[in-house]
Specification:
The complex is a heterodimer of chains A (309) and B (204). Chain A is mainly alpha-helical. Chain A has a two-stranded antiparallel sheet. In chain A, α3 packs across α8. Chain A has one domain. With 204 residues, chain B is of the alpha+beta class. The longest helix of chain B has 31 residues. Classes of the chains: A mainly alpha (309), B alpha+beta (204).
């Protein structure tokens, strides 16, 4: 194996191992309090570990990064990496059949890489080309895959079985991880990590203030956020959504039929299932996870129990 | 006859006024109001808690239905609470939400808020007003308000930031606390959280 792939492969291996454990444990059906989070005890442990890493390393580094560099430089760094990401975002938009958005992303990369001085300035947004947020987990969701059990991955943070599998593709497609020169790659990776965490400092402060139990709050936010992202900001109303009836405070917190972690997130278009099934089967069989993509995929063709009125 | 006419006018004028502000216009005017104030007020941006509390209390609170928010967040446990507990829960949850919201306000810099056209029928009892916060060099964040029609005008009962509901996110959090230590336990945790927030130094 060429050394350039070391970081990438290690990350993938770690992720694969985490998914393997998670998948295996999901198979054992450890019953947690929340049907969407059957692995809560394990997840909580990993969440605690991640918090520790964040507190000891990431957050202090990000605070230093924010203190040392002027805002305009940090904006340039953020824009630079955002421009690299737009490539993969565009591909995902195209994979989801959103041709207009996908072409918009391609245009963004073209404009920002040239007029935007290699991506340091986001001129495309000013030109009316909106920045999107896509990843392979969202693409899988768009294709009809439910999130599966909620997972907290070491270092990667909140995820789900579907999004974790998606992340494996995201890491593969990550241009930074694929840089040839080792030292350049490591430095670039470190700068991007610091920049990302710095951009989240305010948000994590709000989370700290708002949550009673940070783990639960993070999980609920993550699941809602992903659902919203898959529908590009306008998910159908859920049965349990607060926007139901005035007396909905009297309803059980968990709506019927919606809490199965395997419930399809988006209305599945039948076509890509076979495709994705064949694409994923080597991954799953290699990891030995007791997850039948076939059964998931076939379950996905059932209609979505929407609470949409 | 004339007297009757004026009486009729007087009677119809009051409810007409209460319904005069449509929900999207209401959200827009509150937001623009608050943004104007923050833009002018250095102390708010510096995190002066007193000044922020003033703005939130006078401009924002009157348009929020905290009782309904608490009911949604409590879900099935609402019915299990006594009226006194319900009152305490509403009070503490209100304080927590106001504080979180206030601190988020201090982080406002020069974002622009865009409003999406309202999709609702005139007789809808509940509507969602969608807006988007745009900031240079960052992806825009969706900010949606759920409002209900009440005799006193439209009231906000949920706010969604980037698709994440401020209220339903608390459901599992609250349910967990109740499972662990009952409704009184939840009230205690909320109160402690609120007290710790008071002594916290304002965000830099």
């Amino acid at each position: 194996m060429k050394p350039r792939n070391d970081v990438c492969m290690n990350a993938l291996k770690r992720l694969g191992a985490a998914l393997l454990i998670a998948g295996a444990a999901a198979g054992c059906a450890t019953t947690g309090e929340n049907p969407r989070d059957p692995l809560e005890p394990i997840n909580r442990a990993i969440f605690g570990f991640n918090e520790g890493v964040d507190k000891a390393v990431l957050k202090p580094v990000a605070e230093g990064y924010r203190a040392v560099l002027p805002g305009i430089v940090r904006a340039g760094v953020t824009n630079f990496f955002a421009n690299l990401e737009d490539v993969w975002i565009g591909i995902n938009n195209l994979l989801q059949g959103k041709v207009e958005q996908g072409l918009g992303d391609v245009m963004r990369v073209a404009i920002n890489s040239t007029f935007g001085l290699l991506g340091l300035i986001d001129v495309a947004t000013d030109a009316g080309l909106e920045k999107h947020n896509e990843d392979f987990g969202q693409t899988l969701g768009r294709w009809g895959f439910g999130s599966g059990p909620y997972l907290v991955l070491p270092f990667f943070g909140p995820s789900s079985l579907r999004d974790g599998i998606g992340s494996m593709f995201d890491v593969q497609a990550d241009l930074v991880v694929n840089i040839d020169h080792v030292r350049t790659r490591n430095t670039t990776f470190a700068v991007r990590t610091a920049d990302r965490r710095a951009n989240l400092l305010d948000a994590s402060q709000v989370l700290e203030e708002a949550a009673l139990d940070k783990y639960t709050f993070t999980r609920e936010s993550y699941l809602q956020r992903r659902r919203s992202q898959i529908y590009d900001g306008s998910p159908p109303r859920e049965e349990e959504s607060g926007a139901a009836r005035p007396q909905d405070g009297l309803r059980p917190a968990r709506a019927q039929g919606h809490d199965s972690p395997w419930a399809p997130e988006a209305r599945g278009e039948a076509l890509p299932h076979a495709l994705i099934q064949s694409a994923l089967s080597p991954v799953l069989s290699a990891s030995g996870a007791p997850v039948s993509v076939g059964s998931t995929a076939s379950a996905l063709t059932t209609s979505h129990p929407e609470g949409n009125r | 006859m004339r007297f009757l006419l004026s009486l009729l006018l007087a009677l119809t004028a009051a409810p007409a006024f209460a319904q005069a502000t449509p929900p999207d216009a209401l959200v827009k005017s509150i937001t623009e109001d608050v943004i104007q104030i923050i833009r002018k007020d250095r102390e708010i941006r510096a995190g002066n808690p007193k000044r922020i509390a003033e703005v939130v209390e006078t401009k924002i609170l009157p348009h929020f239905d905290f009782a309904r928010m608490t009911r949604i967040a409590m879900a099935v446990n609402w019915r299990r609470a006594t009226p006194e507990q319900q009152k305490a829960l509403t009070e503490e949850f209100k304080t927590l939400l106001v504080r979180t919201y206030s601190n988020a306000l201090t982080q406002y810099r020069d974002q622009v808020v865009d409003y999406k056209p309202l999709r609702a029928r005139p007789d809808d009892a509940e509507v969602t007003v969608k807006s988007e916060i745009r900031q240079k060099g960052a992806q825009s964040v969706a900010l949606d308000y759920d409002l209900e029609r009440t005799p006193a005008g439209w009231k906000v009962f949920d706010v969604k930031v980037g698709g994440v509901s401020l209220i339903t996110t608390y459901r599992e959090d609250f349910a967990g606390q109740v499972r662990e230590s009952g409704i009184d336990g939840l009230i205690k945790v909320l109160a402690a959280k609120n007290r710790s927030g008071e002594t916290r130094k304002p965000a830099s």
